[in-house]
Amino acid sequence: MKRIKNWKLELRNLEKEILATLKYFFFFGYPPTLEEIHTFLKKKASKRRIMSILEKMVKKSLVARIFNTQFSIFNEFSNKNALNITNFNFNINFKFQISNSDRAYRYTLGEYIKNNNQQSTINNYLKRQQISINKLSSWKFNLYVKLLSLVPPVKLVGLSGSVAMLNADEDHDIDLFIITAKNRLWTGRFIILILAQLLGLRRRREDNTGKDEHVAGGNPLTDSGVQYKNKVCLNLFFDEKNLKIPKFKQTEYVAHEVLQMKPLIQKDDIYLRFIDPNKWVFDIFPNSKIKFQSSNIESNRKRKVQINSVILILNLICNLDFVIWIFNMVESILKNLQLKLITQHQTSEIVTDFQLWFHPDDFEKKLKKSSKFL
Q1: Residues 213, 248: contact at Cβ < 8 Å?
Q2: Would you say 114 and 62 are in contact if contact means Cβ atoms under 8 Å apart?
Q3: For helices 139-149 and 185-198, what crossing angle results, to 10°?
Q4: In this structure, what DSSP letter does residue 202 have?
Protein backbone atom coordinates (compact mmCIF):
# COMPACT_ATOMS: atom_id res chain seq x y z
CA MET A 1 0.00 0.00 0.00
CA LYS A 2 2.82 2.39 0.91
CA ARG A 3 4.54 1.60 -2.37
CA ILE A 4 1.36 2.46 -4.30
CA LYS A 5 1.04 5.78 -2.43
CA ASN A 6 4.66 6.64 -3.22
CA TRP A 7 4.10 5.76 -6.86
CA LYS A 8 1.03 8.01 -7.07
CA LEU A 9 2.90 10.84 -5.34
CA GLU A 10 5.78 10.50 -7.78
CA LEU A 11 3.32 10.53 -10.68
CA ARG A 12 1.68 13.74 -9.43
CA ASN A 13 5.08 15.37 -8.92
CA LEU A 14 6.15 14.49 -12.45
CA GLU A 15 2.89 15.86 -13.85
CA LYS A 16 3.50 19.14 -11.99
CA GLU A 17 7.06 19.34 -13.33
CA ILE A 18 5.90 18.65 -16.88
CA LEU A 19 3.28 21.39 -16.61
CA ALA A 20 5.88 23.79 -15.19
CA THR A 21 8.20 23.01 -18.13
CA LEU A 22 5.40 23.58 -20.64
CA LYS A 23 4.47 26.87 -18.93
CA TYR A 24 8.03 28.12 -19.32
CA PHE A 25 8.04 27.43 -23.05
CA PHE A 26 4.45 28.64 -23.40
CA PHE A 27 5.60 32.08 -22.28
CA PHE A 28 7.68 32.23 -25.47
CA GLY A 29 5.01 30.74 -27.72
CA TYR A 30 7.19 27.68 -28.20
CA PRO A 31 5.75 24.11 -28.24
CA PRO A 32 8.57 21.79 -27.07
CA THR A 33 9.20 18.25 -28.24
CA LEU A 34 9.44 15.21 -25.99
CA GLU A 35 13.22 15.53 -26.22
CA GLU A 36 13.10 19.14 -25.02
CA ILE A 37 10.61 18.39 -22.24
CA HIS A 38 12.92 15.61 -21.07
CA THR A 39 15.99 17.86 -21.22
CA PHE A 40 14.40 20.77 -19.34
CA LEU A 41 12.43 18.81 -16.77
CA LYS A 42 13.67 19.67 -13.29
CA LYS A 43 13.27 16.09 -12.13
CA LYS A 44 15.19 13.02 -13.22
CA ALA A 45 13.05 10.71 -15.34
CA SER A 46 13.38 8.57 -18.44
CA LYS A 47 11.90 9.68 -21.75
CA ARG A 48 9.72 6.59 -21.76
CA ARG A 49 8.30 7.56 -18.36
CA ILE A 50 7.66 11.13 -19.48
CA MET A 51 6.03 9.92 -22.68
CA SER A 52 3.69 7.67 -20.70
CA ILE A 53 2.66 10.54 -18.42
CA LEU A 54 2.21 12.91 -21.36
CA GLU A 55 -0.18 10.43 -22.98
CA LYS A 56 -2.31 10.40 -19.82
CA MET A 57 -2.19 14.19 -19.56
CA VAL A 58 -3.30 14.50 -23.19
CA LYS A 59 -6.32 12.30 -22.44
CA LYS A 60 -7.16 14.54 -19.46
CA SER A 61 -6.80 17.62 -21.73
CA LEU A 62 -4.12 18.99 -19.40
CA VAL A 63 -1.69 18.87 -22.30
CA ALA A 64 -2.30 19.25 -26.02
CA ARG A 65 -0.28 17.32 -28.57
CA ILE A 66 0.17 19.03 -31.91
CA PHE A 67 1.48 17.48 -35.09
CA ASN A 68 4.61 19.04 -36.54
CA THR A 69 5.43 18.02 -40.09
CA GLN A 70 8.71 19.96 -40.12
CA PHE A 71 10.18 19.11 -36.74
CA SER A 72 13.65 18.25 -38.02
CA ILE A 73 14.04 21.48 -39.99
CA PHE A 74 16.96 22.66 -37.84
CA ASN A 75 18.81 19.38 -38.24
CA GLU A 76 18.17 19.44 -41.98
CA PHE A 77 19.44 23.00 -42.12
CA SER A 78 22.62 22.01 -40.28
CA ASN A 79 23.18 18.89 -42.34
CA LYS A 80 22.87 20.76 -45.62
CA ASN A 81 25.62 23.12 -44.42
CA ALA A 82 23.62 26.09 -45.67
CA LEU A 83 26.08 28.34 -43.87
CA ASN A 84 29.07 26.17 -44.75
CA ILE A 85 30.17 26.78 -41.17
CA THR A 86 30.98 23.12 -40.60
CA ASN A 87 33.49 23.23 -43.45
CA PHE A 88 36.00 24.81 -41.09
CA ASN A 89 38.17 21.98 -39.87
CA PHE A 90 38.46 23.17 -36.29
CA ASN A 91 34.70 23.17 -35.80
CA ILE A 92 33.15 20.08 -34.23
CA ASN A 93 29.52 19.80 -35.23
CA PHE A 94 27.51 18.40 -32.31
CA LYS A 95 24.39 16.58 -33.43
CA PHE A 96 22.17 15.37 -30.62
CA GLN A 97 19.97 12.60 -31.96
CA ILE A 98 16.23 12.72 -31.37
CA SER A 99 13.67 9.94 -31.14
CA ASN A 100 11.20 9.22 -33.92
CA SER A 101 8.26 10.26 -31.74
CA ASP A 102 9.71 13.76 -31.45
CA ARG A 103 9.72 14.16 -35.20
CA ALA A 104 5.93 14.07 -35.28
CA TYR A 105 4.70 15.82 -32.14
CA ARG A 106 5.13 18.89 -30.00
CA TYR A 107 3.31 19.69 -26.79
CA THR A 108 1.71 22.70 -25.15
CA LEU A 109 -0.80 23.53 -22.44
CA GLY A 110 -4.23 22.03 -23.01
CA GLU A 111 -5.99 25.20 -21.87
CA TYR A 112 -4.18 27.15 -24.60
CA ILE A 113 -5.39 24.89 -27.41
CA LYS A 114 -8.97 25.08 -26.08
CA ASN A 115 -8.96 28.81 -26.77
CA ASN A 116 -6.96 28.68 -30.00
CA ASN A 117 -7.16 26.79 -33.26
CA GLN A 118 -4.64 23.92 -33.20
CA GLN A 119 -3.65 24.33 -36.84
CA SER A 120 -3.17 28.05 -36.32
CA THR A 121 -0.85 27.33 -33.39
CA ILE A 122 1.44 25.06 -35.36
CA ASN A 123 1.29 27.31 -38.44
CA ASN A 124 2.49 30.28 -36.37
CA TYR A 125 5.36 28.21 -35.03
CA LEU A 126 6.31 26.91 -38.49
CA LYS A 127 6.28 30.50 -39.73
CA ARG A 128 8.79 31.46 -37.02
CA GLN A 129 10.89 28.44 -37.96
CA GLN A 130 11.13 29.68 -41.54
CA ILE A 131 11.86 33.24 -40.42
CA SER A 132 14.74 31.90 -38.31
CA ILE A 133 16.09 29.85 -41.22
CA ASN A 134 16.00 32.94 -43.43
CA LYS A 135 17.94 34.94 -40.87
CA LEU A 136 20.62 32.26 -40.64
CA SER A 137 20.78 31.93 -44.42
CA SER A 138 21.50 35.63 -44.92
CA TRP A 139 24.69 36.11 -46.96
CA LYS A 140 25.82 38.84 -44.58
CA PHE A 141 25.49 36.59 -41.55
CA ASN A 142 27.12 33.75 -43.47
CA LEU A 143 30.09 35.95 -44.38
CA TYR A 144 30.31 37.35 -40.84
CA VAL A 145 30.61 33.90 -39.27
CA LYS A 146 33.23 32.88 -41.82
CA LEU A 147 35.28 35.99 -41.06
CA LEU A 148 35.00 35.40 -37.31
CA SER A 149 36.33 31.88 -37.79
CA LEU A 150 39.56 33.37 -39.15
CA VAL A 151 40.10 35.66 -36.16
CA PRO A 152 42.71 34.00 -33.86
CA PRO A 153 41.31 35.41 -30.58
CA VAL A 154 37.85 33.96 -31.32
CA LYS A 155 37.50 30.51 -29.75
CA LEU A 156 33.73 30.04 -29.87
CA VAL A 157 30.76 31.66 -31.54
CA GLY A 158 27.51 30.32 -30.13
CA LEU A 159 24.03 30.93 -31.47
CA SER A 160 21.58 31.75 -28.69
CA GLY A 161 18.21 33.41 -28.13
CA SER A 162 15.09 32.89 -30.21
CA VAL A 163 16.97 32.12 -33.44
CA ALA A 164 18.81 29.22 -31.78
CA MET A 165 15.40 27.69 -31.05
CA LEU A 166 14.14 28.53 -34.55
CA ASN A 167 11.44 30.60 -32.90
CA ALA A 168 12.24 34.14 -34.03
CA ASP A 169 9.84 36.78 -35.26
CA GLU A 170 10.76 39.06 -38.16
CA ASP A 171 12.02 41.86 -35.90
CA HIS A 172 14.21 39.65 -33.68
CA ASP A 173 17.97 39.94 -33.92
CA ILE A 174 20.53 37.12 -33.86
CA ASP A 175 22.08 36.63 -30.42
CA LEU A 176 25.69 35.46 -30.35
CA PHE A 177 27.74 34.24 -27.40
CA ILE A 178 31.50 34.71 -27.78
CA ILE A 179 34.45 33.04 -26.04
CA THR A 180 37.87 34.53 -26.73
CA ALA A 181 41.39 33.23 -26.26
CA LYS A 182 43.14 33.74 -22.93
CA ASN A 183 43.84 37.42 -22.21
CA ARG A 184 42.34 38.49 -25.55
CA LEU A 185 38.83 39.45 -24.43
CA TRP A 186 39.05 43.11 -25.45
CA THR A 187 41.00 42.53 -28.66
CA GLY A 188 38.52 39.86 -29.71
CA ARG A 189 35.53 42.06 -28.89
CA PHE A 190 37.00 45.00 -30.80
CA ILE A 191 37.54 42.95 -33.98
CA ILE A 192 34.11 41.30 -33.67
CA LEU A 193 32.36 44.67 -33.34
CA ILE A 194 34.33 46.22 -36.22
CA LEU A 195 33.44 43.36 -38.57
CA ALA A 196 29.77 43.59 -37.58
CA GLN A 197 29.86 47.36 -38.15
CA LEU A 198 31.46 47.01 -41.60
CA LEU A 199 28.83 44.48 -42.67
CA GLY A 200 25.99 46.58 -41.30
CA LEU A 201 25.06 43.83 -38.84
CA ARG A 202 25.87 45.51 -35.55
CA ARG A 203 23.01 46.21 -33.21
CA ARG A 204 23.68 49.60 -31.65
CA ARG A 205 23.28 50.46 -27.97
CA GLU A 206 20.29 52.68 -28.70
CA ASP A 207 18.55 49.65 -30.21
CA ASN A 208 18.51 48.00 -26.77
CA THR A 209 15.72 50.24 -25.56
CA GLY A 210 12.12 49.28 -25.95
CA LYS A 211 12.56 45.60 -26.71
CA ASP A 212 13.19 42.59 -24.52
CA GLU A 213 15.56 39.71 -25.12
CA HIS A 214 14.11 36.25 -25.51
CA VAL A 215 15.72 32.90 -24.96
CA ALA A 216 13.13 30.60 -26.47
CA GLY A 217 11.65 33.35 -28.62
CA GLY A 218 8.03 34.39 -28.88
CA ASN A 219 6.27 37.72 -28.83
CA PRO A 220 8.08 40.67 -27.23
CA LEU A 221 6.57 42.28 -24.17
CA THR A 222 6.83 45.70 -25.76
CA ASP A 223 7.28 47.03 -29.27
CA SER A 224 8.79 50.43 -29.81
CA GLY A 225 9.26 49.98 -33.55
CA VAL A 226 13.04 49.89 -33.23
CA GLN A 227 14.51 48.27 -36.31
CA TYR A 228 17.17 45.65 -35.65
CA LYS A 229 15.84 42.93 -37.88
CA ASN A 230 18.64 40.49 -38.80
CA LYS A 231 21.23 42.41 -36.78
CA VAL A 232 23.61 40.54 -34.49
CA CYS A 233 23.33 41.15 -30.76
CA LEU A 234 26.78 40.73 -29.18
CA ASN A 235 25.84 40.81 -25.52
CA LEU A 236 27.92 38.07 -23.91
CA PHE A 237 31.71 37.72 -24.02
CA PHE A 238 33.85 35.28 -22.01
CA ASP A 239 37.63 34.98 -21.80
CA GLU A 240 38.62 31.29 -21.82
CA LYS A 241 40.62 31.99 -18.65
CA ASN A 242 37.37 31.99 -16.66
CA LEU A 243 34.46 30.12 -18.23
CA LYS A 244 32.44 29.57 -15.07
CA ILE A 245 29.20 31.51 -14.87
CA PRO A 246 29.13 33.45 -11.55
CA LYS A 247 27.06 32.07 -8.69
CA PHE A 248 24.43 34.82 -8.76
CA LYS A 249 23.78 34.03 -12.44
CA GLN A 250 23.35 30.29 -11.92
CA THR A 251 19.59 30.34 -12.40
CA GLU A 252 17.02 28.32 -14.33
CA TYR A 253 16.83 31.05 -16.96
CA VAL A 254 20.59 31.08 -17.58
CA ALA A 255 20.71 27.26 -17.49
CA HIS A 256 18.20 27.32 -20.36
CA GLU A 257 20.48 29.67 -22.28
CA VAL A 258 23.52 27.46 -21.73
CA LEU A 259 21.79 24.29 -22.92
CA GLN A 260 19.95 25.93 -25.81
CA MET A 261 23.08 27.56 -27.21
CA LYS A 262 24.24 26.08 -30.53
CA PRO A 263 28.00 26.29 -31.24
CA LEU A 264 28.60 27.61 -34.76
CA ILE A 265 32.38 27.86 -34.43
CA GLN A 266 34.59 26.31 -31.80
CA LYS A 267 38.29 25.65 -31.47
CA ASP A 268 40.27 23.44 -29.10
CA ASP A 269 37.20 21.71 -27.63
CA ILE A 270 36.19 25.02 -26.07
CA TYR A 271 32.49 24.10 -26.01
CA LEU A 272 33.01 21.11 -23.71
CA ARG A 273 35.52 23.17 -21.73
CA PHE A 274 32.77 25.73 -21.21
CA ILE A 275 30.26 23.09 -20.10
CA ASP A 276 32.72 21.47 -17.68
CA PRO A 277 32.88 24.31 -15.07
CA ASN A 278 29.16 24.91 -15.52
CA LYS A 279 27.90 21.48 -14.53
CA TRP A 280 25.56 23.22 -12.12
CA VAL A 281 23.09 23.23 -15.06
CA PHE A 282 22.78 19.47 -14.54
CA ASP A 283 21.63 20.09 -10.97
CA ILE A 284 18.76 22.18 -12.32
CA PHE A 285 18.06 19.95 -15.32
CA PRO A 286 19.39 16.47 -14.40
CA ASN A 287 18.25 14.81 -17.63
CA SER A 288 20.31 17.20 -19.76
CA LYS A 289 23.52 15.46 -18.69
CA ILE A 290 22.72 12.61 -21.09
CA LYS A 291 23.45 14.91 -24.03
CA PHE A 292 27.05 15.27 -22.99
CA GLN A 293 27.57 11.58 -22.39
CA SER A 294 26.69 10.50 -25.92
CA SER A 295 29.21 8.49 -27.88
CA ASN A 296 28.88 11.04 -30.68
CA ILE A 297 30.38 13.80 -28.55
CA GLU A 298 33.07 11.58 -27.08
CA SER A 299 34.17 10.39 -30.51
CA ASN A 300 34.26 13.97 -31.77
CA ARG A 301 36.37 15.00 -28.82
CA LYS A 302 38.95 12.32 -29.58
CA ARG A 303 38.91 12.97 -33.31
CA LYS A 304 42.15 14.17 -34.84
CA VAL A 305 41.57 17.65 -36.20
CA GLN A 306 43.24 18.82 -39.37
CA ILE A 307 44.03 22.50 -39.07
CA ASN A 308 43.22 24.82 -41.94
CA SER A 309 46.50 26.14 -43.39
CA VAL A 310 45.44 29.79 -43.01
CA ILE A 311 44.56 29.23 -39.35
CA LEU A 312 47.83 27.37 -38.77
CA ILE A 313 49.92 30.22 -40.17
CA LEU A 314 48.00 32.83 -38.16
CA ASN A 315 48.42 30.80 -34.96
CA LEU A 316 52.16 30.38 -35.53
CA ILE A 317 52.59 34.11 -36.04
CA CYS A 318 50.49 34.94 -32.99
CA ASN A 319 52.63 32.69 -30.78
CA LEU A 320 55.91 34.45 -31.54
CA ASP A 321 57.26 36.17 -28.40
CA PHE A 322 57.57 39.55 -30.07
CA VAL A 323 54.06 39.32 -31.49
CA ILE A 324 52.68 38.28 -28.09
CA TRP A 325 54.30 41.35 -26.51
CA ILE A 326 52.71 43.60 -29.14
CA PHE A 327 49.32 41.92 -28.70
CA ASN A 328 49.51 42.38 -24.93
CA MET A 329 50.08 46.09 -25.47
CA VAL A 330 47.20 46.27 -27.94
CA GLU A 331 44.95 44.36 -25.52
CA SER A 332 45.73 46.84 -22.75
CA ILE A 333 45.02 49.84 -24.99
CA LEU A 334 41.77 48.39 -26.33
CA LYS A 335 40.65 47.45 -22.82
CA ASN A 336 41.13 50.99 -21.52
CA LEU A 337 39.44 52.48 -24.58
CA GLN A 338 36.40 50.19 -24.44
CA LEU A 339 36.02 50.47 -20.66
CA LYS A 340 35.93 54.24 -21.00
CA LEU A 341 33.13 53.98 -23.57
CA ILE A 342 31.22 51.36 -21.58
CA THR A 343 31.29 53.29 -18.30
CA GLN A 344 29.74 56.31 -20.00
CA HIS A 345 26.49 54.39 -20.50
CA GLN A 346 26.78 51.56 -17.99
CA THR A 347 23.59 50.62 -16.14
CA SER A 348 23.04 46.98 -15.19
CA GLU A 349 25.80 45.57 -17.40
CA ILE A 350 28.30 43.25 -15.72
CA VAL A 351 31.93 43.96 -16.57
CA THR A 352 34.76 41.90 -15.08
CA ASP A 353 38.30 41.06 -16.17
CA PHE A 354 37.12 37.88 -17.90
CA GLN A 355 33.39 38.25 -18.59
CA LEU A 356 31.14 40.87 -20.17
CA TRP A 357 27.36 40.67 -19.75
CA PHE A 358 25.55 43.33 -21.75
CA HIS A 359 21.88 42.99 -20.88
CA PRO A 360 20.56 46.50 -20.13
CA ASP A 361 17.01 45.09 -19.97
CA ASP A 362 17.13 42.21 -17.50
CA PHE A 363 14.60 39.95 -19.14
CA GLU A 364 14.94 37.35 -16.40
CA LYS A 365 13.41 39.76 -13.88
CA LYS A 366 10.57 40.59 -16.25
CA LEU A 367 10.00 36.89 -16.84
CA LYS A 368 9.59 36.29 -13.11
CA LYS A 369 7.25 39.26 -12.71
CA SER A 370 5.08 38.37 -15.66
CA SER A 371 1.63 37.21 -14.59
CA LYS A 372 1.53 34.99 -17.67
CA PHE A 373 4.61 33.12 -16.52
CA LEU A 374 3.41 32.81 -12.94
Answers
A1: no
A2: no
A3: 150
A4: B
